[in-house]
Fold each of these.
Amino acid sequence: MTRVLLVLLCVAFFALCVYGMWHGWKRRQRKQAGLPPFPARPETLGAPTLCTTGVYVGTTNAGNWQDRVQVGDIGHRAEATLSLVPEGVAVDRVGATPIFIPAGSLRAARTDRGLAGKVMFSEEGLLVLQWENEGHLFDTGFRGDDKDVYDEWLAALGQKQINTEDKA
């Protein structure tokens, strides 16, 4: 009888934790409902000048590395291909909607060690693009399979490498 009671208690605790996470996710979505819609990807894009594979880590409100944007499926991590095209930056995510950052919206590029709850051991583990949409600044993070290409991305975007303070 004691084992059954302990198992039921563990299941109830687990269910309460799952409910709390779901409730927090929904609350954040309601709070962020007023954010401007993300730009639509153009029907056709020019030839990419840079292309790399990796993981789309997430998009946050700029300046707050843990404030993940969770409207729609923007908050979902996914395998992705990051492409620099003449029109901007395209993030083609596997199993999620693509993200497009128009060239005129890009404000800065840097390498960093953390974004959207993802923390890397290396100071240069993530490529972070800061961009503006209807007056609101966002940081979009990408962890490339080959981090050696980050310097090429920073040079192509005309930015110097900037590391922010430690996130750990």
Amino acid sequence: MAKQARERRRAERRGHFAEYAAALFLLAKGYRILAIRFRTKAGEIDLVARKGDLAVFVEVKARVGEREAVDAVSATAQRRIRAASDIWLSRRSDAARLSQRYDVVAVLPGRLPKHFPDAF
């Protein structure tokens, strides 16, 4: 196997681990996880969570620092997540009564994840 392919698979595994760690962290904070890796033609949302009448679309970043994680969510990624969230909401019968928010969860080595509500 080529080195590049191995690195890509390693990064993918690290990302999946980070998504599950973030999901568990949000569960502990009282959120319900409705979807992990919700995929559409517009893009993918790492986590869709809900707390009361609030739908939360979460981008998960595994980085060495909090600032690096938040900065890694580019304007292009934000547009992609918003477009995918519109599709998710369009499939919900209760979408009209839900407010929405876009969060980032930073998964940091050796520490609990850090939640950044309303990050973008």
Amino acid sequence: MKQRANTASHQPDVTSMLLLLGVGLLIALMLPLSRAAMDIGMTPLAYAFWQALGGGILLVICGRRGSPVRLSRELVRYFGISGLTAIAVPNALAFIVVANIGAGLTATLYALPSLATYGIAVILGMEALSRKKSVGLSLGVAGCVWILSPNPAGINPDSLPWLLLGMLVPLSLAVGNVYRTSHWPKGATPEQLAPGMLLAGAALILLVVVVSGSAHSLLFSGMDLWTIVAVQSVLTAISYRGFFHLQKRTSPTFLSQLGFVITPAGLLFGIMFFGESYGWAVWGGVVLLLIGVVLANGPTRERKNCSAVSDPG
């Protein structure tokens, strides 16, 4: 396996920042689409399945002009673990716990992968421990939690077991962030890896649905739903292609900060599409989040760790 210096050994460049912003906005735009689909009868798992399948198929079609992908045991394993940690497990767990702890508290789980990813990367020697970055990521997570769960003291004790189960969501995402960088197949491109992860995720979700005896829930009809699924598939294809380019250019920790873009963008889209309104406390959380992002990505004086990991290209 070819070795290289850690991607985190330099500050993210302008292209990386634009990719983070663009991919985060596209993922946030998926939220009002999913809400519209749920409002007219599509189940969450069905939506997750068609989202991954549609996006994966579009990327396969678009990628036919490039170099063909030769499936190997290494690639199949990479697709399976990536689809499991980034799509199947987080989505399935989130859909299970949302009915028990509420949508707002469930949404806060997606703010936590940044800290978990950074912790795993430091333990594995992929990144150096930085006090400034640690404080920045902590502030960013605090801002997201403040925005999405303004009254955490009101958590019902009966919800605690479900909340603990939900903690596997950020853990799964964090493991996936680190795995995709450290095990990036030699010579593979983002254009080759993105569709594989999406299709593997769709296959795993399909397996869960079939085993649970609810395969009929995947069927749907109506022009409105077909339109939403078509638009969602295009957004998924574009966003995950950009997602893998971002993964290749930066560190797992930087990639994990997508949640810091998705949270405020989701608020703005809620205002634009559903007329939602938010109080001063929510916007205070946005300010805290932005301060954390600036601290986490600003220059540091700490000595950078140059431990070797696999070469993603």
Amino acid sequence: MPSSVESTDASATGLKDTRFQHAEEQYHVDQPAAPGSYLGPIDATLPDADKVPLLFQPFAVKDLTLPNRIVVAPMCMFSSKDGFMTDFHLVHLGSFAAHGAGLVLAEATAVEPRGRITPSDTGIWKDEHIPAIKRVVDFVHNQGGKIGIQLAHAGRKASVKARFDDLPDSEYWKDNVVGPSGGADFQWDKSHHVPHELTVSEIQDVVKAFGQAAVRASKAGMDTVEIHGAHGYLIHSFLSPISNQRTDSYGGSLENRARFLMEVIKEVRNNFPADKPIFLRVSATDYVEHLNKPSWEIEQTIQIAKWVKEAGVDVFHVSSGGNTAEQKIEAVFGYQVPFAEKVKKAVPGLVVVAVGIIVGGAQAEEVLQQDKADLVAVGRAYLKSPSFALNAARELNVKAAFSAQYGRGRASLGTF
């Protein structure tokens, strides 16, 4: 994709490529209320119909106000070339906003090229990425929605094949995969590459890359950014003693292993508007208790939650696993929610997001009613139905706002 607003072919013909120059008025429709906003009960005769479910009460953190408490979790789509968002991302992310999600979080977006999981990941390592990202942001905002982006570095899990890619070897960077510790002992598994150990100078370069990514996210109009510290990617691999066996100031004690994360937070916070919140996604455990060796567990997660709150993180998004092929996970409905609950109880004042096979409105509402989290993130259930929020509303007897363009859908059915 060209780096300027004129493509190579367009330059040759003298025609401008306006794909990423859409003025808002070209497709803007005023939304009487943000899709997914509470408008009242569907059936006012039902018991407690006058009580607004927590899931459909607005939620504010700093200058970000959500119409409901449903978050679309970041999900890799492997649909980019050279990091650029495409029409797919516009439709994919835009559909969630049009159908009532409180907050849409764009997928793990690499802060440097070797930080991609696959060659088809989205990127934010150069200014040329901004217009395509802004196009998506503008659409979400025009629908009345809110959007953030996950800033990521894959670390030792980089340069692997996407499920549906058939790219030549030249698209990969198997000799430039990095981690806190290097060598064959730190290879995630045999399908991944052997990482080399980052030098202190290289670590500082990555920290700066996160900061510059935050600048670009701000220029694109993002309402928030989420630092990806989960699932065995670079930040998580620094945190866990399974993958970090350094002997310098970035290894050893918990404070040292968390140093890279804390430096990233500081750099992102310094380069993203102070009135906008910062999210951090973490894995609460490595799931290797059966190995009986030092690993990453919930007690350490709680400790860093306290540290990052003081460092400027506003929202703590609690996932789990992903750091070793030796993990043993029993993935059942809501299986990660107990980790979020433990963090929320241990760190007052920190906004906590729960995630983990949450598939419906009643289940999500129960998480909030029992004070296990402040927000609920949903991933694969959104791939099954981009209308997850509106479906959850019907389940909870909530008349939720439709996008103005979809309003006739309610009128034709006459029940919600």
